[in-house]
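Appendix B. Raw example, untouched.
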Amino acid sequence: MVFLSRTWFAAKEIKIPRKYLRNKFIDTVRLHVKGGTGGTGLPKFGGLGGQGGCIYCVGNEKADLRSIVSKYRAKTITAGHGEDSRKTKIVGNPGADVKLEVPLGVTIYGEDGRVLGSIDKEEETVIVARGGPGGNKENSFLGHFGQVHHIRLDLKLIADIGLVGFPNAGKSSLLKAISRAKPKIASYPFTTIKPNKGTIQYEDLRQITIADLPGLIEGAHINVGLGHKFLKHVERTKLLLFIADIEGFRLSPKYPKRNCLETIMLLNKELELYDEELLDKPAILAVNKLDIEGSQETFESVKHSLKNINEVIQTIPEEIRPDRVIKFEDIIGISALKGTCINELKMALRKRLDQFAEENDPNIVEPSKLLKKHRAIIRERGPQVT
């Protein structure tokens, strides 16, 4: 009876995720971590207690946060305690460490919001809870407790390209047309409720990753709708691909109908209010649904307005007018449904990413400079008398 009671109370402490969360994409997890307690020393013989175990986060490209939630249902992780010193074993063994495999792109935050570290590379390691020292002469042979606190694992997808657009603009349709991903597609807003990641494959086997993110709405910068759950994923992309519906967008009757140019300016405004540094990223605009009758004339008008934005910016309603207008490297009209101009868009994305790499990768050196640097090595040498 006592055993059954203990089992019952232990089961109550384990929180089983609610049904609607079981198949949901998880990008944030809060955990309670406890470093191991150091073992007690033995003053009589000068014995040393074992060091308490530590808890680490280790980068693994194939890992996900869902596996951590499934493995640690109570969301409490405890490292092993150090072994006590005794007559037959003067130095106690250290406690067992716990290594949490986390996906690349995870940032670890402490209880106070301070960043403890980030995982961006395979096998990169961050200590999130240190074990307590074992008993020794300095602490009167009494083992100390390890670090105990809450941490938050926050995943930000790492992709070459991030899709930015309003709901139902055709982001998932474009992802399906341009890559090998198979996102859910439907004719109603908020079809995409979790990020999808696809890979663009070129004929020469070059691969570029592209992230389809949940649609923005007005007020996303203050966390309206999916708000920050979307915008945080944009931070780690190299290039922004704006998707705009040629017919504009209206979320609901309480919102005004925005035309195509106004939706582009509103997307610009939301990114500006969330983090102005996002506007420094290279950007390409794809105007979708050009298979609709009369859309070509609208597209030419939008394209002309964007090239002469200083002349038309005052015609944009003040509440959606950005202080700083993003500069688009390319403006391409497409039809994700019919596949029109998809190859042109793919080549433009590749071209801009290559330019970004040349400007930001310090390992890329101009051939002429490389030749001068290694001229002494590569020049022909004649025979030498020794």
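End of appendix B.
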